[in-house]
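From the pipeline queue, job 12 of 40. The input is one protein chain; the requested action is below.

Action: predict structure.
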Amino acid sequence: MSGVFISYRRADAQGWAGRLGADLGQAFGDVARFFDLASIAPGADFVLAIEKAMADAAAVLVLIGPRWLDLRNEQGARRLDAPDDVVAHEIRQALTLAVPVIPVLLGGATMPDAAALPEPLRALARRNAIELSDTRWPHDLERLLAALEAATPLRRRPTEPAAGGVSVGAGLQLRDSEVGRVTGVRGALPARGVDVLQRATLSNVKMGDITGVELTPPAAPGPKE
């Protein structure tokens, strides 16, 4: 199993779903699996379509935005209570699988109480949720990625420096620290230059010398003919 099935409702979390899918792709490759009723051929059984879409799931993420619990249909009934609601069926199906089902809270949403959910979905309230905040997205995303790695066979792809570059301390996080020397990088001088502390998180840090980046300059151009 290598997919991550993302359950979401367009009117509630479409933008977040797209952003999360892109982040999962960058971390794990093409693993995000979305089910969209509009993508099913007329006359097809959407229940079977959902089951097929979930067949390769290593985990299911249930995206819960601010309107997820109380969105209504044209008749004024709550969508989650409708017998043909696709999102409710996705969650019912997910809860029968032997894979992690992770509620993902978005836009300030809180985890609904079991009593607020339709009876077949109440087990979702027992699943530990994770928040993805717009203001802390990279930090929260890291927690989610780590949780997926811990609970599934998914593993992040190695992060490669940009073409022709050298990264020193990629992904380093420093807080309340005094940095002296960063050493140990050697190689030919790339055309693009050197990225020092690429994607680093620095807070209350006094940065001293960064040394030990020993590079071979490019060969001098020959005489013009």
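Job complete. Residues 48 and 142 are 33 Å apart (CA to CA).
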